């Protein structure tokens, strides 16, 4: 069997429904550089706080959120504990769905925050990934026919009336072309652009009022969060940009020799602003561990491939999938992972790519000043920050404290002290780092699902050595780290996990046990206080 020629410049499947051997000649790619630039230039106007927000939309948001909180306070909150947490989670998810695309997208981000947000909230918002109420089929037909300029029956031999999945911006239908290829068709919801822009104006108006009032919100930088939404959602509204993201990530993976991921091929002709036809890739759901094991798939290998490919793309090429979660991944029978939905794709300009590279290399070398300098260059700290003072004030030069030895009140005091110190230095969470951290949180959860007995210290060491051996010369040239003198120092990594420097190994299952001890202590404390937290 001949090898498809487009595998030379893309991490695609081995059995193509069509071949993209000349991607630069695709008609729908023409002028996309300008389209992407126009979308970027729209962002400042979209997030500029007006004198007043769209009052109708603001009142609608307040009505739905107020009703959700009011009904929870009256019905579930008095019962306390898990019943209370389940109640508020369900009501917030329903409110988000009624408010539409932007708030559903917020829910999707929350659904990827296992270990950050309460488990009930994460589980409930997972329904926002692909189980949002779908548009009627006649609406789908109208959008497809308007954008493709032809009757549905003239383009497709069959088209499933019920969607495979329905999410915030679009829904996906299975179909078959007249030439016989099985495809999926992503169709944008009508009027989504107007709703998103109104929501962004509301958020931009509210965001400045949160700065300095809620410590965590200050660290997260609410205006930057709104800007992140504006950038990602505004680009998501043009599916031609998403198709180009697919090609760029596929090229990056192929250039790095990473064939453990497979990217679906966008159709050479059937791509428009609101319709995206692509190759259909089917496989195991990402949490179907039993099915994978029965098929002989190495679930530990999936985790290792995912970590390397994600980090390598960000560090070496400055491009990475920006919205990893279980709904966007399928594991193929041969053990490779199909990566889906490229509406949110991280793109780092060169200066920030180099800062990411220094940050991650510094983490494996326990170079605290180097990591802080990289965070400064990423925009997490002001340019004139005294890094030595930050180290002293936050106690980064002191031995780590095992959090399992602290009482809940002591732990809260530690967190508050760090937060207060960061805010005093003007710390913010830059938008590129937000996407990166969100993906790392997902990969953390993937280890819990697919590889619970993974030795974290051994894997981190192997990962660092892989980069030194594979990219050592380039890393030396770009950030000045001589691969001959490079040594992995896990002291900082162990400190981040709160374990003693003498600890030789730590499996993910053991880390989960430590987290569970902390979680139970906080749950007991918060239930006594009547606080909705885990």
Give a brief rundown of this model:
The protein is of the alpha+beta class and 534 residues long. It is 56% helix and 9% strand. The strands form three sheets. Strands 1, 2, 3, 4, 6 and 7 form a six-stranded antiparallel beta sheet that branches. A four-stranded mixed beta sheet has the order 5-11-10-8. Strands 9-12 form a two-stranded antiparallel ribbon.
Straight-line distance between termini: 54 Å
Specify Rg, calculated over alpha carbons.
24 Å
Structure class: alpha+beta
Say how many strands there are.
12
Mean pLDDT: 85
Shape: globular
Share of β-strand residues: 5-15%
How many distinct helices?
Answer: 22
Range of helix content = 55-70%
Unreliably modeled segments: 215-219
Biggest beta-sheet profile: 6 strands, antiparallel
Question: How is the topology of this model organized?
Answer:
Blueprint: H1 32-46, H2 55-75, H3 81-99, H4 101-111, H5 119-125, H6 127-130, H7 137-148, H8 152-155, E1 156-159, E2 165-166, E3 170-177, E4 182-188, H9 192-210, H10 215-220, H11 222-236, H12 239-255, E5 261-262, E6 266-271, E7 275-279, E8 284-285, H13 289-294, H14 299-317, E9 319-321, E10 329-331, E11 337-339, E12 345-347, H15 350-364, H16 368-378, H17 387-393, H18 408-424, H19 431-450, H20 456-479, H21 491-497, H22 508-529
Parallel strand pairs: 5-11
Antiparallel strand pairs: 1-3, 2-3, 3-4, 4-7, 6-7, 8-10, 9-12, 10-11
Helix pairs in contact: 1-11, 2-3, 3-4, 3-5, 4-5, 9-11, 14-15, 14-19, 15-16, 15-20
